[in-house]
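TICKET #2291
ISSUE: user wants both folds in one file
ATTACHMENT 1:
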Amino acid sequence: MSQLFDLTGKTAVAIGGNGVLGSAMAKGLAEHGAKVAIVGRNLEKAEEVVNEIIKNGGEAKAFRADVSSEDALMHLADEIDKWTGGCDILLNAPGTNSSTPFFELGMDEYDRIMEINLKGIVLACQVFAKRMIERGRNGSIINISSVSSTTPLSRVFTYSVSKAGLNSVTQFLAREFAPHGIRVNAIIPGFFPAEQNRKILDKDRIENIMRHTPMNRFGEAEELQGATVWLASEKASSFVTGALIRVDGGFGSMTI
């Protein structure tokens, strides 16, 4: 059974792997044998994650890249090729948020959030999936969505729009890439203590979240590792593509 989740010999590229959730998922991939590229704008944070992985017996390397720049992603892909020969697993976990009210929202802020949360993932899929196809190797792309992607949450207009778009991208590319042996899925996390949502978690909002979360607690970042490793494994999830997997403590099942 353990062989189902063995990622030995695979290279995972974790974009946003220096964040709270991205780093936890990247560590899970490393613990199951994958070599992991930790990618982020902040190289110092990426190197901290790499050091933790190496300390626990894994193999990883830090890379700096701006996910909204095609040139930066092309350069990143070249560096990954030199390091391990290419990407097998692409974990798209970049993210930024804002609680700016709709009528106060400027287009500069809107564009910045959309560039990171949506455009950046589209570019990453273009760059890395194309190389997977050219090499004739199967692959897994895992996009990190949000509960706000299906039923928009208050206070996070642009974030919700970007994540709804990401779900559509995930399902479109699942169909597009299936003939090439590349699976594309998304994880929909519930409320986790990530940096981008702490600033809008006041007392009233926390109470509202708990009323809509049957498990009555926040998630721990490590609780995303199981779904990540499962979707990354060619053996364990070989017939899974175009799926939107909820890891949300039941949030998506609640109405009143």
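ATTACHMENT 2:
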Amino acid sequence: MNIEVEAKFPVDSLVQLQLQAEALGFQFPREAALEQDDYFNHPARDFRQTDEALRIRRCGSELVLTWKGPRLDSLSKTRQELEVPFPVAPEQITDKLQSLTAILLALGFTHSGCVRKLRRTASLVFEGRTFHCSLDDVSGLPLHAELETLCEDSQRTDALQSLLRLAERLNLRLQERRSYLELVLTSNRDDSAPPQPDAQSL
């Protein structure tokens, strides 16, 4: 069973964090990758209640179908994760994305939201484990960074402790346990809320 041990942190400056991470040995690409994540809800159970996620990620010339299970602890965003990549020729990616989406919709799934972000990701072996650090600029949200590693379920506790020690080395302490989709949907609701009366006019 693949377990994704992950934590997300709001940050003030991606440039500053990148410098700190590179001092530890991370090597980030010069250009950020554009990722588009389309999320879908199940026709028979509400993923908002079961704390699951199903998404299609479009990045470059690849599509990835991902299911994430419920969060497994109260300290991070650790979940079981299953992924199926679909390498696609660049000129076909839009048609393939539409076809995958059409299959899910035909089965009764509903589109629940879209997250777009610019991401730089680098890897580092820390305490014997390979960790990925992602610097994320998500459309409509503050800046965030994610740390993650994959492990077997029996290694989950040790992997999480290593991740938290790595986060401390990077001065990342305040966690955000909500997903980007949850944050985007909350932001959209806040933006659509009617204006509140000025307190001085009451």
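RESOLUTION: both attachments delivered.
EXTRA DETAIL ON ATTACHMENT 2: The longest strand covers residues 110-126.
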